[in-house]
Structure formats: structure tokens, C-alpha cells
Amino acid sequence: MSSRTLALDDRLYQYLLDASLREHDELAALREATRTHPRGTMQISPEQGQFMALLVKLIGARRTIEVGVFTGYSALAVALALPDDGRLLACDISDEFTSIGRPHWSRAGVAHKIELVLAPALQTLDARLAAGEAAAYDFAFVDADKGGYDGYFERCLKLVRPGGLIAVDNTLWSGRVAAPAQDEDTAALQRFNRKLHGDERVDLSLLPIGDGLTLARRRR
């Protein structure tokens, strides 16, 4: 018995994957294609992708948002969890990185669910708000530049419906958020975490999965 979250050594982590991971072939292939990328550590873990897919199914999501696509693993995980008429608005600025994932989206049969917009995410989200899409989405995932988190969160909070869910990645930041900040990314995450802790607009949980995953449910 334990009153706190277990620390995972390599053996226990492998057991976790062996006992629970059900990874689509194209997810596994995309994860392998990203593994040797110079920025491969930016990719979420497979158990986090599976957890997010489960959340999408649990809340019956049909319209979703992703801010920060990288090579597209999380987008693929969410798209696979959506119904056939579900849609994911995928916001990124890199054609180079997202082009790695697009063939896997097609081979997995979900490319039609993903609308990839290559532009600054705030511009894309503001355009959707201006088009009358407030409260039109069920789920959002934020995993982009840390200094932009507050702005992305505020837009997503308007875009998701009451009862909708926002997931925010890297909120434990390899443990650096628990010490005095030595860089602006860490300081930005500390400010963001403090803000959400006191934000009465959402129900909140910060989970020690991956690099820290914050879940914020819009109350009203």
C-alpha cells in the first residue's frame, strides 16, 4: 500500500506498458520514426497518448483542439479515439515536423478528421472565436511554447463547452517547477500552475503522467 504515487524504475515502467498499452500500429510506427529525431524528447509518452484517448472517449468528444502538434503522435491518438465524424483542429507552425506524422494519419484512416492549420496558434484560435465557435469544442490539448500557455489556455477555455476538458502538458517540467526558476520556460510554467490552482472557472487535477499533465474541466 502507498499513500503517494509510485516512482517508476525501468522495470516497473516496462511492466506498465506490457500490462496496459494497446498501441495502434501507426502510433507505434510514428513513435519509432520520432524516437531518433533531434527533438524527439518533445513527443508524449505512449501511455499518456492512450490516457488522453480514453478521456476523449469518456467525455464523448466530437470536436477537439490541439495546440502544438510536433510530429503528430498525440493528434493521431486523439483522432483514433474520435468517431468518424469527429474533428481535430491541429495548430502548429512547422510544416517540417508535422509532415513526419501526416503519412501515418493517412495510413491509420484518420486524416479526414484532422484539420492542420500552419499558423501561430493564437491567430488560429482567435479566428475560431471570431467565427462564433465559442463553447463549440469538447476537448483541447496544449503542448507548445511554455511562455504561450496562458494565452492558449484562455482561448481554449472559451472554445470548449461547459463540462469540456483542457489537458496541458509538461506542467511538472522534469521537476524543475519545484525549485527556483533558472530559465523563463520554468518561470512561465510556475506562473501558469499557480494561476490554475486558484482558478475557480475550472475543476483541476495535475497528474504525474509523462512530464506532468494538468486536466482542467470548464465549470460553466
Description of the molecule:
- By secondary structure, the protein is of the alpha/beta class.
- Helix content is 42%, strand content 20%.
- It is built from eight helices and seven strands, in the order H-H-H-E-H-E-H-E-H-E-H-E-H-E-E.
- It has helices spanning 10-20, 25-35, 46-58, 73-81, 95-107, 121-130, 149-159, 184-197; strands spanning 63-67, 87-92, 114-118, 137-142, 160-169, 202-207, 213-218.
- Strands 3-2-1-4-5-7-6 form a seven-stranded mixed sheet, with helices on both faces.
- A hairpin with a 5-residue loop joins strand 6 (202-207) and strand 7.
- Helix 2 (25-35) runs antiparallel to helix 5 and helix 3 runs parallel beside helix 4.
- The longest helix is centred in the last third of the chain and has 14 residues, at 184-197.
- The protein is globular.
Write the layout of secondary structure elements.
Layout (H helix, E strand, L loop, with lengths): L9 H11 L4 H11 L10 H13 L4 E5 L5 H9 L5 E6 L2 H13 L6 E5 L2 H10 L6 E6 L6 H11 E10 L14 H14 L4 E6 L5 E6 L2
Parallel strand pairs: 1-2, 1-4, 2-3, 4-5
Antiparallel strand pairs: 5-7, 6-7
Helix pairs in contact: 2-5, 3-4, 6-7
